[in-house]
Amino acid sequence: MGITVKEVAERVGLPSRTVRYYDRIGLVCADQRSTAGYRLYSAEDEGKLRFIRQAKGLGLSLEELRGLMAAAERGCCGEVLPELQRLLEDKVEEIDARIAELSAFRERLVAYGAGKG
C-alpha cells in the first residue's frame, strides 16, 4: 500500500500542491488510489520526488529533469550521469556569466556614484 500526497510531501519536504502538480505534469504518477480515491505513492515515487527537490535546488528546470528521469526509466543509467554532469556544468557557466554581468554593473554604479559616470 502506498502513502498519500500529504504524507509523501511531508517526507520529502515539498508542499502537497507541488506534489500534485508534479503528478499532473507526469513527473511522478500515483498508480494506486485509496478506497476514498486519494492518490497513493510508492517508495519509488518518494525517491523521485526527493531527486526532483534536490535537482531543483541546483537550478535544474522541470524539462531538464524530465529528460534525466526518462533516461533513468529506460534503464539508461549510463546516460543519466553524463547528462547530469553536463547540465550542472552549464549551470556553472550561466552563473559565471551572470556574476561577470553583475560585477560590471556594480562597477558602473560605483563609478556613477563617485561622479565619474
Task: Tell me the radius of gyration.
Answer: 20 Å
Terminal CA distance: 67 Å
Number of helices: 5
What about the largest sheet? 2 strands, antiparallel
Strands, count: 2
Question: What does the average pLDDT come to?
Answer: 90
- Helix proportion range: 55-70%
Q: Could you state the oligomeric state of the chains shown?
A: single chain
Which structural class best describes the helix and strand composition? mainly alpha
Uncertain residue segments: none
Shape call: elongated
Q: How are the strands of the largest sheet arranged?
A: 1-2
Give the DSSP E fraction (strand runs of 2 or more residues). under 5%
Write the H/E string, N to C: HHEEHHH
Short description:
The protein has 117 residues and is mainly α. 69% of the residues lie in helices and 3% in strands.
What descriptive keywords fit this protein?
single chain, mainly alpha, two-stranded antiparallel ribbon, 2 strands
Explain what the structure shows.
- The protein has 117 residues and is mainly α.
- 69% of the residues lie in helices and 3% in strands.
- It contains five helices and two strands, in the order H-H-E-E-H-H-H.
- It has helices at 5-12, 16-24, 43-57, 62-73, 77-113, and strands at 32-33, 39-40.
- The protein has a two-stranded antiparallel ribbon.
- A hairpin with a 5-residue loop joins strand 1 and strand 2 (39-40).
- Helix 1 packs across helix 2.
- The longest helix has 37 residues, at 77-113.
- The model has no long low-confidence stretch (mean pLDDT 90).
